[in-house]
Specification:
Layout (H helix, E strand, L loop, with lengths): L9 E7 L4 E10 L4 H13 L3 E12 L1 H16 L3 E6 L1 H9 L7 E2 L2
Parallel strand pairs: 2-3, 3-4, 4-5
Antiparallel strand pairs: 1-2
Helix pairs in contact: 1-2
Length: about 110
């Protein structure tokens, strides 16, 4: 049985500022069903290089599948010598703290 992403649970968008900063805005729940959408948005954001800000301030659930996608995106960003900055909701920053990854990411304030 395969799970199809439910767009009602997660929305993503990518914009670029005048300073060439890519802003990947994520809203909703990131779990096993929506992680593929989250992963695609992250990879699209870092694909062009430079600085990518992942705006997760409107994320209401952040599960293990989301953590894995975010760590994978960080690894790719490092290999491409890009900067990846995360701006998270309380649930995102708390999860990153609990699993010991808060210091692995540049946290935007």
């Amino acid at each position: 049985m395969t799970h199809q992403p439910n767009p009602a649970l997660l929305t993503t968008s990518i914009t670029t500022t005048l300073d060439d900063i890519h802003v990947c805005t994520i809203r909703g729940e990131i779990d096993i069903r929506t992680a593929p959408m989250f992963r695609k948005a992250l990879f699209d954001g870092i694909a062009v290089g430079g600085t990518t800000v992942v705006d997760m301030t409107a994320v209401t659930f952040f599960g293990v599948a989301g953590i894995c996608a975010l760590v994978e995106a960080l690894d790719i960003a490092h290999r491409r010598q890009c900067e990846l900055c995360v701006e998270g909701s309380h649930c995102v920053t708390r999860v990153l703290e609990v699993v010991g990854l808060a210091t692995a990411f540049d946290i935007c304030e």
